[in-house]
Design brief:
single chain; about 130 residues; about 30% helix
Length: about 130
């Protein structure tokens, strides 16, 4: 007499809460990925991302603990703005900056050999 035990694998019930939650989560993730792809495809990314920056702060001075006067270069004008912690006020409009002022060259990197010599001279090791 032979007895065989049959082991059956548990079946996944489609109405199980675990299956429902996992399906909903997968659907939401897929929706977010598709929405991000569509936004990138049709150019609905944030304003100014990838575009040429046409707004630069050229000067700023503090006039109080939370107040500043800022000169902002825009495409066709320079704006003098008063900036506080609660508001921004337009104070004056200046003509656009000359082309020579707009293009500033970055300082040339210092030569490594010269820097090392200066450091060694400061420490008294000539």
């Amino acid at each position: 007499m032979k007895t065989q035990a049959t082991v059956s694998q548990p079946t996944v019930n489609a109405s199980s809460p675990l299956v429902q939650v996992s399906g909903a989560l997968a659907g939401i993730v897929i929706f977010i990925l598709v929405a991000a792809w569509l936004a990138r495809r049709f150019g609905f990314t944030g304003a100014g991302v990838g575009a040429k920056k046409s707004l630069n702060i050229s000067a700023s001075v503090s006039v109080g603990p939370r107040e500043r006067v800022v000169v902002v270069d825009v495409e066709d004008a320079r704006l003098v703005l008063g900036v506080t912690s609660t508001q921004i006020t337009h104070l004056h409009t200046l003509p656009p900056a000359p082309a020579a002022d707009v293009v500033e060259k970055a300082p040339a990197p210092a030569d490594f050999q010269k820097l090392m010599k200066n450091l060694l001279k400061r420490n008294g090791k000539d």
